Structure formats: structure tokens, C-alpha cells
Amino acid sequence: MTRVCSIFSRTLQLISRLEFESAVRKQGAERHARGFSCWGQFIAMLFCQLGHAKSLREICGGLAASEGKLRHLGLPQAPARSTLAYANQHRPWQVYRTVFDQLLAKCQSLAASQPGTRKKKKFRFKNPLMSLDASVIDLCATMFDWAKFRLTKGAVKLHLLLDHDGYVGDWHISTIATYRPPSAQSGRSQDCRSLGPGRTRHRRR
User: Fold this and answer.
1) What are 21-34's pLDDT values in tens digits?
2) Could you list the residue range(s) of the whole structural domain that residue 183 is in?
3) Cystine design at 195: which of 96, 154, 159, 199 (Cβ 3.0–4.6 Å)?
């Protein structure tokens, strides 16, 4: 049997399949699934991100072009566009939030255990060194009508706080693209419910 080891498969190895399936069962995400699993959906959307696919046609076509290698990733065959669209619309997003939290915890633990993570640097600071950045992410204005940005364009703004010890994200918040926090400190303490619909927040535990 031929073994296939691609960058994509190595990336998927970072995600524990057992923990993923546990999150799926907890959320009941495959209660009405007929053949297309949450793991298959995750593979398709990860392929979308890494391959910079901009449509369902590009995702499904790209997976179909590598169909001989999909079985090694846990996906029997490339999904149809309608199948992937239905899964994206109806599967609970909480499954992938759990996967993100699990992977973030692993990254934080790995970064803290690296030798020299907190070694003395040329410039020493009394407090932890953090960097705050905001990036605008374009969205379809017809699908995300709450993400007002320009006349014919929607967008959200991702505010990210980066810890320089390990270079792992410490905190992030998503807002509408026109939102400007008064300061980093006030932005961290603000309740995400006050920012309106579609805003999410995550803080390191």
C-alpha cells in the first residue's frame, strides 16, 4: 500500500481525531448527517483556507483533483457543492470553536515549554511585551448584512493581542470594520455583547 505524506496531511495531524469526534458527539453535530461527516467538512474548509479557494466550486473541484489521496485524510470522496453548502449552513459552529480552543491550549503549552522562551533579551521590560493589531476581513455584503463597511462591501475587523513570549495569540475580538476601540485596555475589558450582532471574543485561559 502506498503511503502519502503531504503538507496538508501533516497539518491535519495537529488535530486530535479523538478529541474532534468527542466535540462532535457533545454538540450532536452529526445527528442528521447522511454520509458527509464533520471531519470531512473540516477537511474541506481547511483546504479552502490553505488553498485560498474563493467558492464552493474551487473547494470541491480542488478536492476532486486529489481524490486518490483523500482516503488517507479520512475523507472517502470529494463532497458535492450542495452537500458542503448544506453542512456549512446547518452544522453547529460550536464544534469548531472547541477544536480551536484545544489547539490553542496545545500551542500555548508548547510555547511555554520551549527552551529560552523567556530568556533575557537585549531589551528588557518590566511587564510582558504585547502587540495589538487590527486587520480588516472582507465579507459578502448580501450574506452578512450586519457587517456594514462600504456601500457595496461588507467586512469585519479582527483585533489581535500577541504575546511575544512564544508568539501565541493571547486575546482576540471580532467587530464590524468601522469599530475603533478607545484603547487596548478598554477594549480588553469591554463586554462583547455591547458590540452588537456577529461579534465574538476569545481570551486565553
Assistant:
1) 999 998 888 887 77
2) 128-205
3) 199
